[in-house]
Amino acid sequence: MSLKDNSLSRQLKTQGIILGSFVAIFWVLEFIDQVIFRGRLDVYGIIPHRLIGLRGILFAPFLHGSFGHLIANTVPFVILGWLVMIQETSDFWIVTLVTMIVGGVGVWIFATPGSIHIGSSILIFGYLGFLLARGYFQRNLASIIISVIVGLLYGGLVWGVLPSAPGISWQGHLFGFIGGVITARLIAKEKQYYR
Fold first, then answer.
1. Residue 83 clears pLDDT 80, i.e. is over it
2. What is the DSSP string of 132-175?
3. Residue 29 to residue 21: CA distance in whole angstroms
4. Which stretches make up the Peptidase S54 rhomboid domain (predicted)?
5. Among 16, 87, 96, 167, which residue's beta carbon has the most beta carbons within 10 A?
């Protein structure tokens, strides 16, 4: 095995551990919430316009309303999360942090008072926004190819930023997406600066 193969293998292992850890946290928390707390952990989500609701910016992406909600979020989280990491694993942490803040604050300011917003879809839409915008901002072949592939596979998700069915946090989707686009711009600027 060459040094390059060994480095790629280590990188893939690290990425797998990161994504696996997130998914494990999602599933363990949902199991505990459903079995022990009977769904009462959801109050740690984002509660718009209430000071206590700001704590949800940190907790909401890790909480889900049901196992069905979690199942629906797990696969796109892993696929899009890994695509965010494909060029640099550190991009995942930056996109995740910025998306949580921008998405969470956007939900807290603009969502309906008294509602509770939970779910990793805020991150999924952040990753989607990042991946779609990265090709435009970075203008390198790898980024453009990933943007096109993501657009073909997941472009239909963009409609999730619009109001749809009750109980779905379109605000989380919208502001998560915006957080991802902002991060794509910030990372592209940083990469241009260090060239």
1. yes
2. HHHHHHH--HHHHHHHHHHHHHHGGGGGGGS--STT--HHHHHH
3. 12
4. 57-188
5. 96
Quote the tokens at residue 104. Answer: 């969470």
- C-alpha distances in Å from residue 170, one per residue of 55, 71, 114, 157: 20, 18, 16, 11
Structure tokens at 51: 């000071």
Average pLDDT of the chain?
A: 93
| DSSP code per residue over 62-126 | G--SSHHHHHHHHHHHHHHHHHHHTT-HHHHHHHHHHHHHHHHHHHHHHSPTT--B--THHHHHH
How far apart (Å, rounded) are the C-alpha atoms in residues 79 and 21? 14
pLDDT of residue 7: 87
Q: What is the pTM of this model?
A: 0.94
Burial of residue 187 (number of CB atoms within 10 Å: 0-12, 13-18, 19+): buried
The CATH number of the domain covering residues in 3-193: 1.20.1540.10
Phi, psi (rounded to 5 degrees) for 71: -60, -45
With beta carbons less than 8 A apart as the criterion, state whether 74 and 26 touch.
yes
Rounded-to-integer distance, Cα 126 and Cα 81, Å: 10
Indicate whether 121 pLDDT > 90: yes
